[in-house]
Amino acid sequence: MDLQSLGKLAKEASYELAITGSEKKNAALEAIALALEANQDKIVSANKEDIQAGKEAGLTEALLDRLLLDETRLAGVVSDVRSVIKLDDPVGEEFDGKLLENGLKLSKRRVPIGVIGVIYEARPNVTIDIAVLSLKTGNACILRGGKETIRSNIVLVEVIQAALKSVGLPETSVQYIKSTDRALVGELLKMDDYVDMIIPRGNAGLQKFCKENSNIPVIVGGIGVCHLFADKSVDQEKALAIVANAKVQRPTVCNALETLLVHQDIAEEFLPKLHAHLAPMGVTLIAEEKAKAILGDKATLAEAGDFDREWLCLNLGVKVVADFHEAIMHIRTHSSGHSDGILTNDFTIANKFINVVNSAAVYINASTRFTDGSQFGLGAEVAVSTQKLHARGPMGLQELTTYKWIGIGENLIRP
Amino acid sequence: MDLQSLGKLAKEASYELAITGSEKKNAALEAIALALEANQDKIVSANKEDIQAGKEAGLTEALLDRLLLDETRLAGVVSDVRSVIKLDDPVGEEFDGKLLENGLKLSKRRVPIGVIGVIYEARPNVTIDIAVLSLKTGNACILRGGKETIRSNIVLVEVIQAALKSVGLPETSVQYIKSTDRALVGELLKMDDYVDMIIPRGNAGLQKFCKENSNIPVIVGGIGVCHLFADKSVDQEKALAIVANAKVQRPTVCNALETLLVHQDIAEEFLPKLHAHLAPMGVTLIAEEKAKAILGDKATLAEAGDFDREWLCLNLGVKVVADFHEAIMHIRTHSSGHSDGILTNDFTIANKFINVVNSAAVYINASTRFTDGSQFGLGAEVAVSTQKLHARGPMGLQELTTYKWIGIGENLIRP
């Protein structure tokens, strides 16, 4: 596996993609959609081998389900590709244009970033997602999926490359690191001559590894330790519905709720209601001491570190706070900066909350589950960024672009 | 030097700055301006000690001049502070606001980044610049200047801190790493719990060190290997003026010209003119073989690596290219992505150039010297970014901010 020459080829492909118009890029995406349909049997059969190997390796049912790419799911993926075709291409937009006093006609033009390296786990549909969103925005990409789906991914990338070739675009626009050697991830992170951005889509360990070992800018994200604060003025019935939605709808995703902070003035009344509402849904309350004192054996006492965990299951941390200030201090200390919200009917407190809390998404009286590219109307989602530079929160097509300044003069020198 | 507690204090200060209004931030800047005036003697005297130590250490006259902060220069710095007061505060702006079909009122709000770490060299005015631009945008900062100006910098930061205290803002909003121990830079780069962005302002070695050792996003920049391509259709007289401006006006800065590419059809005629125009200004032409063959002993033959160097002096690389394509290939290989331009009267070629070249700033018939915050009308400049994420080219106040998504619902759950 010669990663350097793979990087060089990706960079060269990126130069061609950068000057490819929307029509041709969309033709490439349609060719990919058709090729995925035409190669359905090959893809599904490679996936079956992955599933079989996963079973032999003793993977859990939940993980095996994430690996699965059957006919139905593949049809869904193809339909997603066609949705991306319909989205506007952000590349080429000019903005902040002005004629300066010094005579320079200046503007910013939106351009592709170049080469995007994506390291991800498990789900093979990510392979198609990332390839398609990168191509739509004129970026080349280098993909590195998990070892559990390597057979599926290799076939998928072959199909994509053949489709690219059929429309006259470089096959090297989408490349896959076919070895499961972990050292290659470390090598990829050092290839700043060829790769412009790294997106790790995976657990906290992968995020940390990329942050600490990359010479290339890394979009850290997808780790959600999310909070809701039920203020004393909250409409308790509505709060129960929002908390249930945030916790139960899809507990394994990053915008699911980890911790509910409850104002002490309502804790005695609200916490038993909370338990009555959530217990039938399978939720276990993990309570700090004050909440535990109220809930008794309806809750498990929280251990050290519990309030820093992304649960990814039906556990819910519960903590009684003395006031707004204590709620803010808790969020500041424990939030991963993904999504945090307040449930309140007090206008002043609500405003204060959105002024003070600095997470990628801050909510008043809404579920944290809204932090999502499609919910936000972005049409697509590459990742959810929890860092502060370049992009925050759900990243759509625009976040796969950068800009360049264009200055036009009539033979202009600086005075 | 306990860098961890310094970082913690900066983070805490950043929370307060983030909710401080423009009026109070401007009052702090005016207090700083007044304090710099009131402490002029103390500052100038500390700077004299730095200059004396520099002389004893055998620093060059050019470097000693960069260290100098006398009464006149300090007055200039104070005047710059008052200019920043007059600029609009980007913090708090809301944009991309929309009411989504799912009922969520969504917008992005511009907010401070948090804590900015800046590592810089030589010039003590950078201490004031960075502190003032950070405060204006509600960011705390941790500064680490060069050892040559440590006495000046310590006094400047003391003056700033006293001014902050006088208006009731945390002194820890601006902190200085008072030790010259190089290991502390490495430690700062790992403090991702407290620092949100690193800006290295210095030579290529510092930039590389930060990129390779930081867990925190780094804004790489300020290294300019800049090109102009004189196409065959160029107005030669005007081209001479632009090339002279780009090379000679201020050869030690990053937007100065490194390399002139000349179309072979005009090389025989243009290169001797170029020499006649630039030689009296002290420029030495460093030519590749074809250009050397034309220029003879009017040029020095380029050595390996010369076309990758940022000259920072009156040398100018000169290369004859066969056509547009060869010019582009040279720029792709050797440009640092700072500023590159074409000199031409051919509309099609000009357009092709700005489409194909992906540098932070791309010019048609204008000097590379325009790549500058004040020339671009940004009012201020924190750094010139040559990387592609977050900000490209001159970074003004807005580039010291990020955004958060604000979602407001009437007790809204995700369907």
Give a concise summary.
By secondary structure, the first copy, chain A, is α/β, with parallel strands linked by helices.
Question: If you had to describe this structure to a student in words, what would you say it looks like?
Answer:
With 415 residues, chain A is of the alpha/beta class. Chain A has two domains: 3-220 and 387-408, Aldehyde Dehydrogenase, Chain A, domain 1; 226-370, Aldehyde Dehydrogenase, Chain A, domain 2. Chain A is 42% helix and 21% strand. Chain A is built from 14 helices and 16 strands. Chain A has helices at 3-18, 22-38, 40-56, 61-67, 71-86, 125-136, 150-166, 183-188, 204-213, 236-248, 264-278, 289-295, 324-334, 347-356, and strands spanning 94-99, 105-112, 115-120, 140-144, 174-176, 197-201, 226-230, 257-263, 284-287, 299-301, 315-321, 339-343, 361-366, 383-385, 393-395, 401-412. In chain A, the strands form four sheets. Chain A has a seven-stranded parallel sheet, with helices on both faces. A four-stranded parallel sheet of chain A has the order 5-4-3-6. In chain A, a hairpin with a 7-residue loop joins strand 14 and strand 15. The longest helix of chain A is centred in the first third of the chain and has 17 residues, at 22-38. Chain A is globular. Strand 13 of chain A pairs parallel with strand 16 of chain B. Chains A, B: Belongs to the gamma-glutamyl phosphate reductase family. Chains A, B: InterPro entries: Ald_DH/histidinol_DH, Ald_DH_C, Ald_DH_N, Aldehyde_DH_dom, G-glutamylP_reductase_CS, Glu-5-SA_DH, GPR_dom. Chains A, B: Catalyzes the NADPH-dependent reduction of L-glutamate 5-phosphate into L-glutamate 5-semialdehyde and phosphate. The product spontaneously undergoes cyclization to form 1-pyrroline-5-carboxylate.
